[in-house]
Design brief:
Blueprint (H helix, E strand, L loop, with lengths): L8 H12 L4 H13 L7 H13 L3 H13 L3 H13 L3 H13 L7 H13 L3 H13 L7 H13 L3 H13 L7 H13 L3 H13 L7 H13 L3 H13 L7 H13 L3 H13 L7 H13 L3 H15 L6 H12 L3 H13 L7 H13 L3 H13 L7 H14 L2 H13 L7 H13 L3 H13 L7 H13 L3 H16 L3 H15 L4 H6 L21 H4 L7 H30 L25 H30 L24
Helix pairs in contact: 1-2, 2-3, 3-4, 4-5, 5-6, 6-7, 7-8, 8-9, 9-10, 10-11, 11-12, 12-13, 13-14, 14-15, 14-16, 15-16, 16-17, 16-18, 17-18, 18-19, 18-20, 19-20, 20-21, 21-22, 22-23, 23-24, 24-25, 25-26, 26-27, 27-28, 29-32, 32-33
Amino acid sequence: KGEGVIRDQDIAVRMFKEESEDKNVAALCGLGYCYHHGIGTKINEKKAVRYYEKAAEGGHAAAFTYLGKCFLSAKDVKRAFLLFKRAASMGDPTGKYYLAKCYYNGKGTAKDYGRAVELYTEAAHLGDAESFLRLGRCFMNGTGVAQDPENAVRLFSKAVKLGSIGSMLALGDCYERGVGIRRDLSMAFTTYQLAAERGDPRAMLRIGECYEQAKGVEKDGERAFEYYQKSKKVGLPDGIAKLAWCYALGIGTEEDEKEAWKWFNRAMKKGSLEGVRGVGFCYEKGIGVEANMRKAIAQYKKAAGNGNAAAYSDLAKCVVSSSGKSTYNQQAFGLFRQSANLGDPVGNQKLGWCYMKGIGVDKDTTKGIKYYHRAAMLGDAMAMSSLAVCYAKGVGVDKNQKKAFEYFKKAAEIGNPTDICNLGVCYKKGMGCEKDFKKAIELYEKAAKMGDAAALTNLGVCYFNGTGTPKDSAKAISYWKEAAKLGNPTAKRNLDRSKKRNQNNRIPFLAQLSRVVKRDMNEVPSNEELKNGDKQPTVYGSDWDLNTPVLENPFFKRPISELSVREQLKRKNLAMEALELTLDRVQRKFKRDIAAVNAEQIKMLGATAGAKLTVSSSNTATESKSRPIVQRVEMRFLELMNSCQQLLKLLAEPKKRFEAPPIVKMKPVVLKR
């Protein structure tokens, strides 16, 4: 074993031989063990039995156990049972363990689960690791004892400390499914790693699944492929099948139909039901072989008939496809139910969906939620997302935004882009969590990179409205265009709205410019101001300083040589619209407001505007009092006309119009599955 010294099997055999000459029963048993397992010598079962018998004659308890294992391998179960019974009576823990197995499986004696549990308990108390594992399974399944998952987990944990690889797998499974202990995928992954480090191919397979499905670790197809290869090298049939799925679906490697077909067939020949199912998948999709639905169904039936849960779901889809119907029928419902009963996560999710929609069965949202929960516990992302939507909208359950957020978060951790996008919606709306626009954008961007159309649409809305990020209408439109190509209807509507608004709305900068012009128009005397005479006119709210002329904006002051072609077009467009606004609105506004001034008719200058503003006068006293105000109005109007003339100079053949983004709130995509 190499305990305390350097491992050397040759020295061990030599020492056993030397001690056996003195009829040392422990040495005789040890020498038999070496011949039995080929330790330091060639395997020789006859010599192994002979040495075991000599040790047994000398009263060595373990020798009876090893001798019983030899007869068990030779299919002499009755004699093996008697030898195990003798070893157990002498207090050998391994003998008690094998005797318990005989009672449990009915080998050499009648089945007796109660007696098996008793013997497993006795052996466990003597420190036998495998007895802890077997006893834990009895408590987990309620075999020969009352079902107690929590006690099962405690027993598995003790066995793990004693180095039982099987217990590491069993405990990891409990953490993964949340049975007998709080669900903890990271602990499940860690426990599987302990077994994998000891070279267990089943643990390597589980770790590969963790990387593939993001269970307790970040999703990593390449790492999953690596672990599937390791399990394949040691000849695990299901590991070979998983490797084939990687080639078929491009998980961690490039898609390779020939390799997929080859490895599925090898796995099937080695007895893997997943390999049988994979061959059916190849026939269904035409991967590495000509598509043949009849053969695909035959393979799925073979796999399902032998207990492969996922094959029932595949068979249901084939039944629907071959019948030419777009919805699942009663036959498909029955197949999903069988799949769910065998613990398949997809089968549970589909069964829940059938109950929620009333497909193949009467509608029952309570049962639908029940099967969604089962599928979610088994790690199905679709079920988690469906549960989240149900809690968010109160379908089949009481409305609960916190639970909705939790399920969206769990589903997003698995790496599905739709769920990542929905989690972003939660952060944006503060649904079950505090509002966090930056986090929402991060999630939208992550899902968008994975090709999710809804995420692209929502990201566009954020950039357009400046939610959690600076406004960038060009980016928004580019995201909507990408989403529209993927068929998202909301993105298409947003693009259509933006085009319509572009035709009717002014760009943001021009909106500021128009406020200046409106300010100038509002700078007219009111009746109250006329009475006070020397009071300055009221100016209504503006973002600009009162004395800042329209053309003093830096955008207009820069030399045209410093402007790009795009900026030149934009400036021409601004100038044109400002001119039109001034000539039209200013004329009407002054005409209306100056009519309130009781003074002589004033013929305004600025023939370009074509404005004639009239003011009547009733007496000279009022005229003399209002004259300063009227003069200010007249001067201000002249300034505006001067601005118009300067704006005209900027319009050097404006043949193009700059298509600027509108100011409009666009509708995002929310909570869709």
